[in-house]
Amino acid sequence: MTLVYSEIMVRYGELSTKGKNRMRFINKLKRNIQDVLSIYPEVHVTADRDRCHVFLNGQDYAPVAESLKQIFGIQAFNPVYRLSKDVAVLEKAVQEIMTGLYKEGLTFKVAAKRADHSFELDSRELNHALGDAVFRALPSIQAQMKKPDVTLKVEIRDEAAYISHEEIKGAGGLPVGTSGKGMLMLSGGIDSPVAGYLALKRGVDIEAVHFASPPYTSPGALKKAHDLTRKLTKFGGNIQFIEVPFTEIQEEIKEKAPEAYLMTLTRRFMMRITDRIREERNGLVIINGESLGQVASQTLESMQAINAVTNTPIIRPVVTMDKLEIIDIAEKIDTFNISIQPFEDCCTIFAPDRPKTNPKIKNAEQYERRMDVEGLVERAVAGIMITEITPQAENDDVEDLIEDLL
Ligand code: ATP
Ligand code: MG
């Protein structure tokens, strides 16, 4: 017989400490797993208090395992074989498993559990029978009770018998959505996707807010932001992508304010608009990719001038990291290669040669008095376009295909 994994048992992470909220956490995680695994139509996911079960229904184990490894809130998981409750079948199975794994000096033990008490052998007898079967196939293998290389876990349940021997470490963290919702200010750069990933890790459900200034920014820049968002869906499921029309505001700033303050004013508008969207959509915080001292606009003075337009907490997950640390993470989460695609976003295009490194709030406010700030913000918010980004690249692929054909 050839053994094929039929199911993956998922163990919960930090949420086990959360007492009363346990079921809420579990249901969130289950939904997230369903979202992420939606790219495998055969796969079916259920959850109970202790574990989540991923039924493969014929789907290949390896890619599903790769997806599971990324989902926050999973401590570890075990792939299992589902077998008929027949001692001869189980003996054959353990022989096949251990023959596949065997190399010199390998140690093993059998840990059987009989939940179905009508089964012919009890746990101890089953340990012996299956251990003996392994010795018959591999006479030189060693049994070892303490820390063996391989533990064959065998469970006899009412409906079937299960064997597992592998445990794979999960991503840990908290299930996305269990810490509330935040708005991620997502540019096309390297830093903001990393900031988003780190917020997801702590259970924050993010919505991506992206400012686009067509025709100054290209459809390529927008697609880049979509692609970055899609990369973030593998950690906890679908993400709402909010595109904000920003052209009018950038033209207005360019016309009414001095060069040195373009950056500061642009960022203040972005912050106001993101905050307005947050309020309408019941977000609790804003997340951005600001970090200190990389560029002139990222001084503490600049941060203060930008931050002054809101009291909403702003989370800056990468604020103290240096560029190489951020790039390391960007590579790990596979966003780096998208981020370095050469599509300019709205900031690059309107960026002054020499932005002010120590902007004053008073001056920013004075320049803003030349504009209809409230009207500009309202029109931008009224013009947002919301798309749900899923792990499936289907639609984009079709678009690419059409583009390629034309
Ligand atoms: P990133 O690599 O994320 O673009 P950066 O190092 O280029 O960051 P800035 O360009 O100063 O830094 O941007 C600081 C932060 O402002 C970004 O990390 C992002 O959160 C936000 N931001 C900048 N441009 C946009 C945009 N077009 N849409 C949404 N948010 C933006
Ligand atoms: Mg940038």
Automatic annotation (TrEMBL):
It catalyses: [ThiI sulfur-carrier protein]-S-sulfanyl-L-cysteine + a uridine in tRNA + 2 reduced [2Fe-2S]-[ferredoxin] + ATP + H(+) = [ThiI sulfur-carrier protein]-L-cysteine + a 4-thiouridine in tRNA + 2 oxidized [2Fe-2S]-[ferredoxin] + AMP + diphosphate; [ThiS sulfur-carrier protein]-C-terminal Gly-Gly-AMP + S-sulfanyl-L-cysteinyl-[cysteine desulfurase] + AH2 = [ThiS sulfur-carrier protein]-C-terminal-Gly-aminoethanethioate + L-cysteinyl-[cysteine desulfurase] + A + AMP + 2 H(+). GO terms for cellular component: cytosol. SUPFAM superfamilies: Adenine nucleotide alpha hydrolases-like, THUMP domain-like. Signal peptide: none annotated. Pathway: Cofactor biosynthesis; thiamine diphosphate biosynthesis. ATP binds at residues 185-186, 210-211, 267, 289, 298. It is found in: Cytoplasm. NCBIfam families: tRNA uracil 4-sulfurtransferase ThiI (TIGR00342). Belongs to the ThiI family. Catalyzes the ATP-dependent transfer of a sulfur to tRNA to produce 4-thiouridine in position 8 of tRNAs, which functions as a near-UV photosensor. Also catalyzes the transfer of sulfur to the sulfur carrier protein ThiS, forming ThiS-thiocarboxylate. This is a step in the synthesis of thiazole, in the thiamine biosynthesis pathway. The sulfur is donated as persulfide by IscS. This is Probable tRNA sulfurtransferase. It comes from Streptococcus hillyeri.
